[in-house]
Amino acid sequence: MKFKTLLVALLMSASTFSFATGVMTEMFKMKKQLNALTQAENPDAFHQAAEIFVTQAQEAQNKTPISLSAEDDANRLKAYQAGIQEVIDVVKKADSQAQQGNLDEAKQTIAVLDEMKKKYHQEYK
């Protein structure tokens, strides 16, 4: 009986760990793409990095951070998802600017992502 209890506990903690690492993995990937966005030398490079960033952000949006436990209400999860959507919207706006030939303006637009990162990481990390 103890073995079964231990096995169930291990399986449950492994699934929690995989959710946590899933969000963390997406965040690390997003950070890498943010660096690519800021270092892009032309609109095409910016666009490629933006597309990857948005895909990774959407993946993170569909996962639950470890800081949001099962006891948390749905409003906190919705707020987390809205925060990720806000980040996605900023990158899409910047991508549009870059595609219109305004690479410097696009880079200025994504500059707000650092402050957003600080804000949301305090709340959900």
TrEMBL record:
UniProt xrefs under InterPro entries: Cyt_b562, Cyt_c/b562
Entry annotated with the keyword Repeat: no
Domain of life: Bacteria
Segment forming the signal sequence: 1-20
Gene3D superfamilies: Cytochrome c/b562 (1.20.120.10)
Keywords in alphabetical order: Signal
Protein family (similarity comment): Belongs to the cytochrome b562 family.
Protein name listed in UniProt: Cytochrome B562
Organism: Haemophilus sputorum
